[in-house]
Design brief:
Blueprint (H helix, E strand, L loop, with lengths): L2 E9 L17 H5 L1 E2 L2 E2 L2 H11 L4 E5 L11 H10 L3 E6 L15 H4 L12 H18 L6 E4 L6 H10 L3 E2 L21 E3 L2 E3 L4 E7 L2 E6 L7 H13 L4 E6 L5 E4 L5 E4 L1 H16 L4 E3 L2 H5 L13 E2 L2 H23 L22
Parallel strand pairs: 1-4, 1-12, 1-15, 4-5, 5-6, 6-7, 7-9, 10-16
Antiparallel strand pairs: 2-3, 8-9, 10-11, 13-14
Helix pairs in contact: 2-8, 5-6
Length: about 350
C-alpha cells in the first residue's frame, strides 16, 4: 500500500498589525505571491515546483478577508489554483470578521473582543455563521463547494466540529498537536483519520522530534520547521508503519524573508525553497511507495480499522540539532541582509494589483 502524502498550503492575507498600529494596513496579494526581484518567490515558486514534479497539493484559501478587501483579491488566486488542478478548500481566520464593523478603527471593538482569532471557545452559532460565509464565497466564485475545512491557527474544540457537521462539510484538518493543544485528550491526534461528531478529522502529522532522559519535545510537520532529512525519515517511518496518509503544512510566505517596517523589504528564503523542492523530488522518485493527492480525495477513502491508528512517529536528535542550528544561523543572516538593503517591496493597501508573472518550467 502506498502512503498518501498531502502537502497542504494555508493561503491567507495578513492583518499586518492594523489592529495595534493606526498607520498599518492589511496586506493582500503580496502576502501570497511574495514578489521580489521581479519574480514570485511565494505562490509562484510553489506552483512551479509542484508542476515540475507532478504534485497535487491542497490549498486552504482564507475567505473572511473579504470583510476588508471588498474587491475580493482571493478570488483570482483561488481560480488560478483550481485551474492548475490543485485541491482548493476552506480556511477561516475569524479576526477578519472584525472589519465588518464600522467601529473597528476605534480599536474599542478589538480591545473588548475575547478570542478574536480563535475558534476554540467560540459559540456553535457563531462558528456556523462564519463557516456558512465561507461556503457562500465559494459559491460566488463558482468553484466546487469545499469538502474540507481548516481553522485558523489550528484552533478547535468539540463545538467547532458540531458546527462544521451542521454546515455539511464532511472532512477537516484542524489538529496539529504541537501548534495548538485544546487540552482535550480526545483531540490529541498525531496521525490517522478520526471521526468526531460526524466529521472525519485528518490531523497534520505531529511527531516527537527529540527526547533526552526526562524530557521530550513534540513538533508538527511543516516545511519551515523541519529539515528535509527529518521529513524523509518520517515518511519512511510512516510507510513502514502502514500509515494511510501524512499531512504536511506550509504557507506561501514561508519562502521569503520579509519585514514590513519601516520600509517593506523581502528576499528569497533559500533554505525553505530547497526543502520543498527536495521533498517534491523525493515523492516523484518514490511513487511506488508514496502518492500525492488532494486532501479531499485522501479524506474520502473508505474508513478501515487501521485508519484511526493514532501513531506518534519518532524523530532524531541527531537530525533535529543540525536543523535548529541551520534555522538560527540562516534567520540571522536573512535579517542582516534585509537590514542592509534598500526597500524593494511596494504594497498598495486595498488596491488590486496586477498578477505577478511566473517563470514557467
Amino acid at each position: 500500500m502506498r502512503t498518501q502524502v498531502c502537502i497542504t498550503v494555508d493561503t491567507e492575507f495578513s492583518i499586518a498589525g492594523a489592529f495595534r498600529d493606526h498607520e498599518a494596513f492589511p496586506v493582500a496579494e503580496q502576502r501570497v505571491w511574495c514578489v521580489t526581484d521581479g519574480q514570485s518567490h511565494g505562490l509562484g515558486f510553489m506552483l512551479n515546483c509542484f508542476k515540475q514534479y507532478g504534485i497535487t497539493a491542497t490549498f486552504f484559501v482564507e475567505v473572511l478577508n473579504k470583510h476588508y478587501f471588498k474587491h475580493d483579491p482571493m478570488r483570482k488566486i483561488a481560480e488560478r489554483l483550481h485551474t492548475a488542478g490543485h485541491d482548493v478548500q476552506l480556511h477561516l481566520h475569524p479576526c477578519w470578521a472584525i472589519f465588518g464593523h464600522d467601529d473597528w478603527r476605534t480599536r474599542a471593538r478589538v480591545r473588548t473582543t475575547p478570542g478574536l482569532d480563535a475558534f476554540f471557545g467560540r459559540s456553535e452559532s457563531d462558528s456556523l455563521h462564519l463557516i456558512e460565509y465561507g461556503l457562500e464565497a465559494f459559491h460566488t466564485w463558482q468553484l466546487p463547494a469545499p469538502t474540507v475545512f481548516r481553522s485558523g491557527g489550528l484552533q478547535h474544540d468539540d463545538v467547532l466540529y458540531r458546527a462544521q457537521a451542521r454546515a455539511g462539510i464532511p472532512y477537516s484538518s484542524h489538529v496539529g498537536v504541537a501548534v495548538f493543544d485544546s487540552g482535550d485528550a480526545n483531540y490529541r491526534l498525531y496521525s490517522g483519520r478520526h471521526e468526531r461528531h460526524g466529521v472525519i478529522e485528518c490531523p497534520t502529522l505531529s511527531f516527537r522530534d527529540w527526547k533526552i532522559p526526562g524530557k521530550a519535545h513534540l513538533k508538527t510537520l511543516t516545511i519551515t520547521g523541519s529539515s528535509f532529512a527529518e521529513t524523509r525519515m518520517l515518511l519512511e517511518q510512516a510507510h513502514r508503519e502502514g500509515m494511510e496518509q501524512v499531512v504536511i503544512l506550509t504557507h506561501p510566505f514561508e519562502y521569503v524573508h520579509s519585514v514590513d517596517r519601516p520600509v517593506p523589504k523581502m528576499r528569497r528564503h533559500h533554505v525553505n525553497q530547497r526543502r520543498l523542492a527536495k521533498l517534491c523530488k523525493f515523492l516523484n522518485e518514490n511513487s511506488d511507495r508514496f502518492s500525492t493527492c488532494g486532501m479531499a480525495a485522501a479524506a474520502a477513502m473508505p474508513m478501515r480499522t487501521e485508519s484511526s491508528r493514532n501513531v506518534l512517529l519518532e524523530g532524531s536528535l541527531l537530525k533535529a540539532l543540525p536543523r535548529m542550528v541551520e534555522q538560527t544561523v540562516y534567520d540571522k543572516y536573512g535579517t542582516w541582509r534585509l537590514d542592509n538593503q534598500d526597500g524593494n517591496v511596494e504594497i498598495d493597501p486595498g488596491v488590486e494589483s496586477e498578477e505577478p508573472w511566473i517563470t514557467e518550467k
